[in-house]
Specification:
Elements (H helix, E strand, L loop, with lengths): L7 E4 L8 E8 L4 E4 L4 E10 L5 E9 L2 E2 L3 E7 L2 E5 L1 E5 L5 E5 L7
Antiparallel strand pairs: 1-2, 1-7, 2-3, 3-6, 4-5, 7-8, 9-10
Pfam family, one: ribosomal_L24
Protein name: Large ribosomal subunit protein uL24
InterPro entries: KOW, Rib_uL2_dom2, Ribosomal_uL24, Ribosomal_uL24_C, Ribosomal_uL24_CS, Ribosomal_uL24_KOW, Translation_prot_SH3-like_sf
Length: about 110
């Protein structure tokens, strides 16, 4: 998968189109990523008690994963942030390096 944990991405389709956020978790098998502040859903949690006796539960807002095809990597070019596709190249030692297609820089 070309998007990794810690990358800054922008949503390119869906209800959160245009929003930017950092990737919290990547799920390569499902081809999904969890982006902070994007695809927020309300989750109903069962009421319970903590060790101190206070009540917990109710409606919690949390992020849900989005498909990796719906986000684009954001890189900085001349002080502005632009979206780009990701490619790969190999260096002299044979290590695989991610490359921003739009700027040509290593990521």
């Amino acid at each position: 998968m070309k998007i990794k944990k810690g990358d800054l991405v922008q949503v390119i389709t869906g209800k959160d189109k245009g929003k930017q956020g950092k990737v919290i978790v990547a799920y390569p098998r499902e081809e999904r990523v969890l982006v902070e502040g994007v695809n927020r859903v309300k989750k109903h949690t069962k009421a319970g008690q903590t060790a101190r006796g206070s009540k917990t539960g109710g409606i919690v807002t949390t992020e849900a994963p989005v498909h990796v095809s719906n986000v684009a990597l954001v890189v900085e070019q001349d002080g502005t942030k632009v979206t780009t596709r990701v490619g790969f190249r190999f260096d002299d030692e044979g290590n695989k390096i991610r490359v921003a297609k739009r700027t040509g820089e290593d990521i």
